[in-house]
């Protein structure tokens, strides 16, 4: 990740957790470690990480939070920060986020504000975290007003993506992460999207294409973030599908009804369909995107979400509260076709509301 | 405040609040404003600020918190951030901190994490905030583990120090701010300290020397912060008196028993006495410092604090939890005499404990 003095490595390997101890010992002499993880990851991966740190003689303590998006809350943020202080971790010590996107966002934000900022390391164990949330420094929690509305830009010092951890990932979680992976193709790299279509069986089965896909996604994200760390410009392209997606996540209470990646999958299809409706993009591209995401086990329409959704005005309210708003006008990531996304800052809210009514 | 792209002006004037509207309108075209303030300042100064913003045609909403250090809490942080989001303030809008150090620390931290960071303006109305906390970008709240242990470095876009606001400041609050002012002389400018001794009556009475003293303090702080924004080196000198002071504040429950500046006053005297005991500084300097701070209406010894203090091991525990700790060794700001403070990173905890026992 090329960010000048704050540049960091992204290691993608089957044994990234097992070799973590040796790597950390070399990078941070004398540091102690706090490991933030959740119940699920604790049983699956924490023993591997603890063994690796023990073998390298590194002192560590654990901070457990419940699994699930609901842990990105004020209450759990305070719990993690208090645990950091209670463990007397100092500015020169290291917080490790071991888990999926929720753990990375929560632990990274806690690291950014504990003692006004301590270093942290991402060890993403979900596909979503490996291809997206662990890279780029966005951290945060959710608010009753919307998702990720409270947080900080805080870059990790190192990202260790462990491919073995993906072997135990439930298929639904794998699919949710795949939505973010496919996103990089849709934004500005149609060759990547076509390659993903062709190689999806091998990626899904865990062959060599899986590691290659993750590396290509990380490289794509690093390139965008390096050019615009604070999202004053093109970094917003990474939000393709996210404005619709965040509103749907809010409408479903950030619950298991709709995982983040699932909301993004629906949101990306809607962004393509909305762009087609505006005459910006060919509608067959929207169909091709939807077909591939559906093939990858993802929901692609509002009807795919179990249970009732709130009325359109409530969805529009959530869209208006998204961070991607400036001076009242709605900003959307629209597209001219696969691999040709762009930022549109002057989207008329009424046009969006009409579109949402039409597709319900 | 020279910080490259994040440089900002510090305006010190009798009518800084009254001219705020015109100044802000010129700096931030199109922005809306959220004003964070407390009950006390709301009655004394909010009408002036509201009138100034109204006259310039600037939209604003108010976010009120109770007066006092207890507002630097997780609960009030959440309240302020939620109010920012509920008011739909956007990244391009401006949060104004109108009040003393508590308001500046709390509002600045809220601004740093709302929507991952929005701009804010400091309008300090206490002497302490004008000479110290409003300048330099340290923001935060207190934790049950200690003071300012949760926070962020977030520089304001502008500081407006209103001299008229000091006219209504209670004498005890003025004295507490004066401790931080005198600190700049004690750190590295004996001429400033001697000038403060000579001009104290005029500073206290509100003559022209008061504005000059505030300007000299801000210039001193800006110089230190510009060289070391993130406190990896000499910025720690600004913590002179603060390690002892923070421990005493914690011991008195962050209450009216001991204001922050009062804790710093006692802490600075203790830092001088401790340095003298170690043979580093002449003991007559400690006496001179104590005499001047006492003359300015400040407490200077543990016995000056009303009520009982906890036993020395409890104070030592608080000292050990202070942020200025590295790898277990205690870091103190010690001195070789007035204007000759330095950072000592290897202070033996037992020596400090023995010193505290001797002076009780």
Automatic annotation (TrEMBL), chains A, B:
Pathway: Metabolic intermediate biosynthesis; chorismate biosynthesis; chorismate from D-erythrose 4-phosphate and phosphoenolpyruvate: step 2/7. It catalyses: 7-phospho-2-dehydro-3-deoxy-D-arabino-heptonate = 3-dehydroquinate + phosphate. It is an enzyme of class 4 (lyase). Gene3D superfamilies: 3.40.50.1970, Dehydroquinate synthase-like - alpha domain (1.20.1090.10). Residues 177-325 form the 3-dehydroquinate synthase C-terminal domain. One of its GO terms (biological process) is aromatic amino acid family biosynthetic process. It is found in: Cytoplasm. Its EC number is 4.2.3.4. The keyword Lyase applies. Its cofactor is Zn(2+); Co(2+); NAD(+). Residues 63-175 form the 3-dehydroquinate synthase N-terminal domain. Binds 1 divalent metal cation per subunit. Can use either Co(2+) or Zn(2+). GO terms for cellular component: cytoplasm. NAD(+) binds at residues 101-105, 125-126, 138, 147. Keywords: Amino-acid biosynthesis, Aromatic amino acid biosynthesis, Cobalt, Cytoplasm, Lyase, Metal-binding, NAD, Nucleotide-binding, Zinc. It comes from the Bacteria. Zn(2+) binds at residues 180, 242, 260. One of its GO terms (molecular function) is 3-dehydroquinate synthase activity. Belongs to the sugar phosphate cyclases superfamily. Dehydroquinate synthase family. PANTHER family: 3-DEHYDROQUINATE SYNTHASE, 3-DEHYDROQUINATE SYNTHASE, CHLOROPLASTIC. Catalyzes the conversion of 3-deoxy-D-arabino-heptulosonate 7-phosphate (DAHP) to dehydroquinate (DHQ). HAMAP family: DHQ_synthase. This is 3-dehydroquinate synthase. It comes from Pelagibacterium halotolerans (strain DSM 22347 / JCM 15775 / CGMCC 1.7692 / B2).
């Amino acid at each position: 990740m090329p960010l000048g003095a704050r540049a960091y490595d992204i290691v993608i390997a089957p044994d990234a957790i097992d070799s973590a101890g040796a790597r950390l010992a070399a990078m941070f002499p004398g540091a102690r470690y706090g490991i933030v993880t959740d119940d699920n990851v604790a049983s699956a991966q924490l023993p591997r990480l603890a063994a690796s740190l023990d073998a390298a003689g590194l002192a560590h303590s654990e901070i457990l939070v419940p699994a699930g998006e609901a842990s990105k809350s004020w209450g759990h943020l305070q719990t993690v920060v208090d645990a950091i202080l209670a463990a007397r971790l100092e500015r020169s010590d290291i917080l490790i986020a071991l888990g999926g996107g929720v753990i990375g966002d929560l632990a990274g934000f806690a690291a950014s504000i504990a003692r006004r900022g301590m270093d942290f390391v991402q060890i993403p164990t979900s596909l979503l975290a490996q291809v997206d949330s662990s890279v780029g420094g966005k951290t945060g929690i959710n608010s009753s007003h919307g998702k990720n509305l409270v947080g900080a830009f805080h870059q990790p010092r190192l990202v260790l993506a462990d491919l073995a951890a993906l072997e135990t990932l439930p298929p639904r979680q794998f699919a949710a992460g795949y939505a973010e992976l496919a996103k990089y193709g849709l934004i500005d790299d149609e060759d990547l999207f076509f390659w993903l279509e062709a190689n999806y069986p091998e990626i899904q089965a865990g062959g060599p294409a899986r590691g290659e896909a993750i590396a290509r996604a990380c490289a794509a994200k690093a390139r965008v973030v390096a050019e615009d760390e604070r999202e004053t410009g093109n970094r917003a392209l990474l939000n393709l599908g996210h404005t619709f997606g965040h509103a749907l996540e809010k409408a479903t209470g950030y619950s298991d009804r709709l995982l983040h990646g699932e909301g993004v999958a629906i949101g990306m299809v809607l962004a393509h369909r909305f762009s087609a409706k505006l005459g910006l993009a060919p509608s067959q591209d929207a169909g091709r995107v939807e077909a591939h995401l559906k093939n990858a086990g993802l929901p692609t329409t509002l009807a795919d979400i179990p249970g009732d959704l709130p009325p359109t005005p409530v969805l529009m309210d959530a869209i208006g509260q998204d961070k991607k708003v400036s001076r009242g006008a709605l900003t959307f990531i629209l597209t001219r076709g696969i691999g040709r996304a762009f930022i549109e800052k002057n989207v008329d809210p009424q046009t969006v509301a009409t579109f949402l009514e039409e597709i319900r």
